Amino acid sequence: MNSSSDKTKVICIGAGASGLFFALNCADEEHEVILLDSNAKVGRKMYISGKGRCNITNDCDVKTFINNIVSNPRFMYSAINAFKPADTIKFFNEHGCPLKTERGERVFPVSDKASDIIDALFFECKRKGVDIRFEQTVEDIRKTENRFIVSCKGKDYVCDKLVIATGGVSYSSTGSTGDGYAFAKKFGHEVIEPRSALCPIKVKEKISHEMLKLTMRNVALKIKAGKYKKEIFGDLEFLPGRITGPIVLSASSLINRMKDVELFLDLKPALDEEKLDKRLLREIENGQNKDVLYLLSTLLPRQFISFFTENTGTDTRTVLNSLSRKERMKLVQDLKHFKLTYEGLDDIDKGIVTSGGVSVKQIDPKTFESKLCEGLYFIGEVIDVDCLTGGFNMQCALSMGYSCAMNMK
Known about the structure:
alpha+beta, 30% helix
């Protein structure tokens, strides 16, 4: 066994998913690993992921996984192949945190507690001998010959290799304050402008109080921006002045660098316009002496009807047996193409992840070592890689940490 003085000294800044997984895979007889974090405990952001349940991965094949990476999917191909979603599932099942797969192949701990995911990583780090130092805010990094000096308040750490795993700028209260970008720039790296990702979308239409408890299930959000068109199917929720929910979060990541964005809701995506018209005709025949308000009650959630009629100009008092074909076809169009006026994305601090970060052009996709500075590595959200919602971002963090550790040996 090598003595401590013979080991390669490695410092990783940031004890999130990527930092923890890198550390536990790197620490061995040849590598002494110190993990620095500004917080008083590890995995701070992981505690709030998946609404406190931690969607740790997505149980899909590599091709499907790559298709769910928004920024720089090709860059992640090597790392995802090196440590696949199936490997993540196996790791946690074997380390005291059994997992389960839910709708959309999203994977969660059976306990529904993010803390169990974090504990599995933390205790494996301790078992491997990782030296975790809490409340260590890095103020400066410099390189002298072949070593790095990492300066925290009142203490300097010296290492042979340095890994930056400081995260992005979303949820800054968890310690993700963008420090990694400053460190990257100091060593000559380009930083792609950070943008909100997986966040609510602001809309001009007024959201009533009663709609705040409403979830629109199985609807489609249609995106248009110039020639770009995309349709995302799933659930949508409402906030004051905003829309959110799985399909909105995914949409935000797709449009955060686009202009002239238009949004439409298909409230009946299972029916094309012809089938929806036939549905309306059946409802009209069954309730000829009733009004349009009754008709809408058979099609839409109660809390949504006023919002729908106010924003489409629909007269709910019209008796069904007097409804003209033109009025009926307008109703079909409004149900299939309900317009929401896009007013931008929510603040970057409200995003689940950050889009942007250290340019992948200056990072080796297999080792995650800087192409500009030997011995310097970047992993996790600090890099310009982000994915759709569903466990893909967390898996990327683990795969980066694993691939970096394995190729450092």
